Amino acid sequence: MNKPWILGLTGGIGSGKSAVAAHFSDLGVHLVDADQAARWVVEPGRPALAKIAEHFGSDVLQADGQLDRAALRQRIFENADERRWLESLLHPLIGQEISQYLARAESPYAILVSPLLVESGQHRLTQRVLLVDAPEAMQIQRTMQRDTVPEEQVQAILKVQASREERLKHAHDVLLNDRGLDWLRAEVERLHNFYLTLRGGQP
């Protein structure tokens, strides 16, 4: 069997990449979620968590020894140097975790879902990139509704994420998600059928 090629799936917050990923998964495509890999590498007992606690102090841990994400997020959002320190610790570990999961794929192609595909350099693990795009006003609206957070917080997250121009530069395919779910599913099916004809992610 040919080794599956890897499609990177990305998009800004509130663009709808989770809905797109879920439908690819329903179609039988092997998915790896970088956010999940990021959670696995900081589970209690894993070396990364000990290093984070040592660096930031025990107030970034919850009473049960799990990582207190909110406390850590606050620390790194306020301080770019701390964010870079954390990224240089976690990105290589997350990369290893992702590669191990992708290696288990049985489908003709596999998908790496990552909001920071471009920023983290994870796009280098892929042969092709699909960008889920949406108008910014729609991204903000969706995220505020989904996470019940104020607009300022969504704006702050958007600022940290790669710009639309930056993402478009890396994208081979763009799915503009500004209509209903049925239309989105039909687009995913159209892309899936196209991807099945590709060898190594290229026509």
UniProtKB/TrEMBL annotation:
<dbReference type="InterPro" id="IPR001977">
    <property type="entry name" value="Depp_CoAkinase"/>
</dbReference>
<keyword id="KW-0067">ATP-binding</keyword>
<dbReference type="GO" id="GO:0004140">
    <property type="term" value="F:dephospho-CoA kinase activity"/>
</dbReference>
<dbReference type="GO" id="GO:0005524">
    <property type="term" value="F:ATP binding"/>
</dbReference>
<keyword id="KW-0547">Nucleotide-binding</keyword>
<dbReference type="GO" id="GO:0005737">
    <property type="term" value="C:cytoplasm"/>
</dbReference>
<protein>
    <recommendedName>
        <fullName>Dephospho-CoA kinase</fullName>
        <ecNumber>2.7.1.24</ecNumber>
    </recommendedName>
</protein>
<feature type="binding site">
    <location>
        <begin position="14"/>
        <end position="19"/>
    </location>
    <ligand>
        <name>ATP</name>
    </ligand>
</feature>
<dbReference type="GO" id="GO:0015937">
    <property type="term" value="P:coenzyme A biosynthetic process"/>
</dbReference>
<comment type="function">
    <text>Catalyzes the phosphorylation of the 3'-hydroxyl group of dephosphocoenzyme A to form coenzyme A.</text>
</comment>
<comment type="pathway">
    <text>Cofactor biosynthesis; coenzyme A biosynthesis; CoA from (R)-pantothenate: step 5/5.</text>
</comment>
<keyword id="KW-0173">Coenzyme A biosynthesis</keyword>
<comment type="similarity">
    <text>Belongs to the CoaE family.</text>
</comment>
<dbReference type="InterPro" id="IPR027417">
    <property type="entry name" value="P-loop_NTPase"/>
</dbReference>
<keyword id="KW-0963">Cytoplasm</keyword>
<keyword id="KW-0418">Kinase</keyword>
<keyword id="KW-0808">Transferase</keyword>
<dbReference type="Pfam" id="PF01121">
    <property type="entry name" value="CoaE"/>
</dbReference>
